[in-house]
Amino acid sequence: MKSISNEKNLESKKILLRLDLNVPLEDGKISDTTRIDKILPTLNFLIQQKTKIIILSHVGRPKGKTVKELSLKPICEDLRKKLNKSIKLITENIYEIKNKDFFEKFDEEIFILENIRFYAEEEKNDSKFAKHLASFGDIYVNDAFSCSHRAHASIQQISKYLPSFSGLQLDLEVGALNKITAEITKPITCIIGGSKISTKIDIIKNLIPKLDNIVIVGGMANNFIEYFGNNIGKSIKEKNCNEIVEEILSLSKKKECKIIYPDDVLVAKDLNGLSKNKELNQVLPDEMILDIGPKTVNKIINIIDNSKTILWNGPAGYFENPNFANGSIKIAKKIIENKKLNKIFSVVGGGDTVSLLNNLKVVGNFNFVSTAGGAFLEYLEGKKLPGITALN
Fold this sequence. Notes:
With 392 residues, this protein is an alpha/beta fold. The chain has 14 helices and 17 strands. It has two domains: 4-171, 3-Layer(aba) Sandwich (Rossmann fold), CATH 3.40.50; 184-380, 3-Layer(aba) Sandwich (Rossmann fold), CATH 3.40.50. 33% of the residues lie in helices and 17% in strands. The model has no long low-confidence stretch (mean pLDDT 95).
């Protein structure tokens, strides 16, 4: 990949910049600006280079139709304030914009084309649509890693018609993921949670040969607890997963990667209950496992202390109830502590994990926090991402 950060002589060039500005909107207001904040360095870099920026992005799933509630107008207003620049939202039909000279009649340095998914051709990866988009600019920059697992017109097809580069945020994302998949500093540990093993099995299988430890937490840990002969009561679990558990244990043994699951747990009779610490053989039929217990927390902290690299994807428990947030909080604090001492390189991803760190206001205390859901997971599975392949 060629990075736009290494390019010279960009002055006056029209940059078609693909961003992921798919932020949550409630009554036309942005409830979480994390994705916007992350791409500000790329925008500031291009402003310093005196380029003209044409932003391509989307919000939600309008399925090729114009949906007023999914306009990029609130995002445009947020960027105006943060960049202190005049930004124009282009609401004209894209097909009525004939060429790049269209943007010369405005004084603004930054333009945002209205929600690119208002056009069905975007998700169909339509080549004519991509070629028309390309006619607006001199250079294409992809700074939307979180969309790069999609073979869409403004992600993949467009790169065939313009000199194409990666953006600063995409460079950071790929660089961070390479440190846990290719340029590894060992020992390396993955703490992985979630409710379903089946959705993470390909990640686990791809990472086992590279890792020293995989710590299984969250709902998927219940499948391991039950597999080893313990009662899990009413706890969430995925059905018919014994073969998957056996496959993970067998492969980890061959590759000398340790699989760690909880030694003790916190339970309650419902999601809103108070927590009780239990040994694995003490869980009652009417109880739910909702967090890891103190013995397990101490074991994980010890593993973190003996690791040089950490990947964390999935909280340790039902953190929405503060009674079951302890495991996740202790993991976060230990990683932060070791990161501050330069003892560890930490990468965090996954919506629930990022939400937890936002609640704790500690997102900035990790080496890298990824807001990319599907792209993050597919990269870890070892899949080729269309948006990245298009830049190579």
